[in-house]
C-alpha cells in the first residue's frame, strides 16, 4: 500500500445551500475529529454536513460525517444522500470503519468531494480514510454512481497512477474533477515525507514537476 502526505443530525432539504459547480478545494468534511478537552482527549461526538450539490437535471446530493465518541475513542461514519427531482432524499452510500488485510483498520473517514459530471449522468464521491493514532495520512476511496441503473461501484484511479511508476517513489495525488462525462483529471506532484526524527525518507519523487493526467471511468485507464 502506498501513502502520500496528509496535506493535514441530518437537516431537511430546504435548510441546505445548493452548489451547482464542482468545488476545487477539498471539503472541510474530509477530516472530522471528536470534540476534545484541553488535554486533547476525545470527550464528545461531532457532526458535519456538506453543502448540497445539484446536477444539471436538478438531482441533488449531500453528505454527513459523524465523528462518534464511545468509551474514550473516536470513530467516523460518512453517509451520502441523493434525491431525484421532486423526490425525498434516500441513503446512497455509507462508509464505516474498514478493516485492512494487514490487520489494521481505517477507523477514520470523511467526505473529501461530491462531484457531478457535466451532464449529471455520473456522480463521483471521494471518501478520505485514515487510521486514528497514526501519521500515515489519507487514503482516498473513489465511488462512482452511473445513473443508468448500474449500482454504485468503487473505481481505482490512484492505483492506475501508481502502476505507471516502476519503482518505489513519492508523490502527492489530487483529484481536480470531471473534464467531461467520462474523464476525471488528477494532478500528480512531487512529494517528500519524513520519519519521526525529521529525516527525509529515501524514496525519490515520482515526478519532477506537477503533471496532469486523466482517468477514463469506463475503460479504467489513464491518458496521456
Spell out the blueprint of helices and strands.
Blueprint: E1 18-19, E2 35-36, E3 42-44, E4 46-49, E5 52-54, E6 60-70, E7 73-83, E8 90-95, E9 98-99, E10 105-106, E11 108-116, E12 122-130, E13 139-146, E14 153-155, H1 157-162, E15 171-178, E16 183-190, E17 211-216, E18 221-223
Parallel strand pairs: 1-5
Antiparallel strand pairs: 2-3, 4-6, 5-6, 6-7, 7-8, 9-10, 11-12, 12-13, 13-14, 15-16, 16-17, 17-18
Describe the structure using short key phrases.
18 strands, about 45% strand, 6-stranded mixed beta sheet, about 220 residues, about 5% helix, 4-stranded antiparallel beta sheet, flat
Number of domains: 1
The share of residues in extended strands comes to 35-45%
Average pLDDT number? 89
CA-CA gap between termini = 24 Å
| Tally of alpha and pi helices | 1
Overall radius of gyration: 18 Å
The major β-sheet equals: 6 strands, mixed
- Helix-strand topology string: EEEEEEEEEEEEEEHEEEE
User: What is the tally of beta strands?
Assistant: 18
What sort of overall outline do the alpha carbons produce when their principal axes are compared?
Answer: flat
Amino acid at each position: 500500500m502506498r501513502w502520500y502526505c496528509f496535506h493535514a443530525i441530518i437537516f431537511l432539504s430546504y435548510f441546505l445551500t445548493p452548489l451547482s459547480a464542482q468545488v476545487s478545494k477539498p471539503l472541510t468534511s474530509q477530516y472530522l475529529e471528536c470534540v476534545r478537552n484541553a488535554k486533547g482527549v476525545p470527550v464528545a461526538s461531532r457532526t458535519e454536513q456538506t453543502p448540497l450539490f445539484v446536477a444539471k437535471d436538478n438531482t441533488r446530493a449531500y453528505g454527513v460525517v459523524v465523528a462518534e465518541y464511545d468509551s474514550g475513542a473516536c470513530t467516523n461514519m460518512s453517509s451520502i444522500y441523493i434525491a431525484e427531482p421532486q423526490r425525498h432524499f434516500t441513503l446512497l452510500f455509507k462508509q464505516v470503519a474498514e478493516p485492512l488485510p494487514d490487520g489494521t483498520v481505517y477507523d477514520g473517514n470523511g467526505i473529501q468531494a461530491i462531484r457531478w459530471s457535466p451532464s449529471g449522468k455520473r456522480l463521483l464521491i471521494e471518501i478520505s480514510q485514515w487510521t486514528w493514532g497514526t501519521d500515515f495520512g489519507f487514503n482516498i476511496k473513489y465511488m462512482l454512481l452511473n445513473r443508468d441503473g448500474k449500482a454504485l461501484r468503487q473505481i481505482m484511479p490512484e492505483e492506475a497512477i501508481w502502476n505507471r511508476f516502476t519503482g518505489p517513489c513519492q508523490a502527492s495525488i489530487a483529484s481536480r474533477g470531471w473534464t467531461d462525462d467520462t474523464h476525471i483529471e488528477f494532478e500528480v506532484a512531487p512529494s517528500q515525507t519524513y520519519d519521526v526524527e525529521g529525516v527525509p525518507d529515501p524514496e525519490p519523487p515520482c515526478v519532477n514537476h506537477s503533471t496532469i493526467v486523466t482517468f477514463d471511468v469506463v475503460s479504467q485507464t489513464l491518458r496521456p
